[in-house]
From TrEMBL:
One of its GO terms (cellular component) is membrane. Gene3D superfamilies: Alpha-tocopherol transfer, CRAL-TRIO lipid binding domain, N-terminal domain of phosphatidylinositol transfer protein sec14p. Pfam families: CRAL_TRIO. This is CRAL-TRIO domain-containing protein. It comes from the Eukaryota. The lineage of its organism: Eukaryota, Metazoa, Spiralia, Lophotrochozoa, Platyhelminthes.
Length: 279
């Protein structure tokens, strides 16, 4: 099954961890304890969606020479006064995240998040200062998506980022903390952080040779409206969780995936793997 294979790849075929990823993925989408409102279908005429497709947020720059995806976010592009932050999250998930989840390169090689703070002011940081919202976003990103998080790259960051990191760090897994890269305004550090092939990936606005940012942004709407993306959204929209059928220990299941494979709350029976010498 191609759907389950996504989670097995992400978990490096650790069955217990893959199983928990699936449980988290389904719970976040459908349980009141998750964030089901973020996964509701978007109306084509939703102003927030139309606006999102014009912004340099969730832009896939491409894949570096190691096969890792590079996603670009310009923090100052989101204006809180234009549309609610929850609508922004919905648009980002429905138009970017879900489209990319079917790409096995994100499951095997992973993704590098490039956050550009150029032009960002206090109003752009404010939505991220809500601890409850932050927990929901990070829970989805760290524990419920079939993709490997390889790096969080901070570029053009100001002193405000130091304050933001004090809020973020307690909610980040240790492995993710180690993969935070601070570049300042140093373009050489940026290219090193993006990885091999950075010149090919970065647009001219970031000192690279890729297509202009405006063209990369335009790709978002085309990909969202493609027939394959529509079919994928229809399949994912069918996901439901019947909590009445779950064991008591796993009601509204949401748990970190960095756990021992013998965890007692595992759904059903865990499997084992024995290597056979057939030589």
């Amino acid at each position: 099954d191609t759907f389950l294979l996504r989670f097995l790849r992400t978990a490096k075929f650790d069955q217990s961890r893959a199983q928990q990823l699936v449980d988290n993925f389904c719970t976040v989408r459908s349980s009141p304890r998750g964030s089901p409102e973020w996964f509701e279908p978007l109306r084509p005429d939703l102003p927030a969606l139309e606006h999102y497709f014009t912004l340099p947020l969730g832009v896939l720059l491409g894949f570096n020479d190691d096969g890792e995806a590079v996603l670009y976010f310009l923090l100052s592009a989101y204006e809180p006064d234009v549309f609610p932050f929850e609508d922004f999250i919905r648009c980002m998930i429905r138009s970017s995240a879900e489209r990319l989840l079917s790409d096995q390169r994100l499951q095997i090689n992973g993704v590098r998040m490039l956050v550009d703070y150029r032009g960002a002011g206090q109003r752009h940081y404010r939505p991220w200062e809500d601890p409850k919202l932050l927990v929901r976003v990070l829970r989805l990103w760290q524990d419920a998506l079939p993709m490997r998080n390889k790096a969080i790259i901070h570029y053009n960051e100001s002193h405000m980022v130091d304050l933001l990191m004090k809020i973020f760090l307690p909610f980040l897994k240790e492995k993710v903390r180690r993969r935070i890269i601070r570049c300042g305004a140093n373009s050489s550090k940026l290219k090193q952080a993006v990885g091999p092939g950075a010149d090919r990936l970065l647009p001219p606005e970031l000192g690279g040779q890729n297509r202009p940012m405006a063209e990369l942004i335009a790709d978002k709407a085309r990909q969202y409206n493609s027939e394959s993306a529509k079919q994928e959204r229809r399949r994912l929209d069918q996901i439901r969780v019947d909590e009445a059928l779950r064991p008591a220990a796993t009601k509204n299941y949401l748990k970190s995936t960095e756990i021992d494979s013998t965890d007692s709350t595992s759904m059903g029976l865990t499997g084992t793997f024995t290597k056979l010498d057939v030589s």
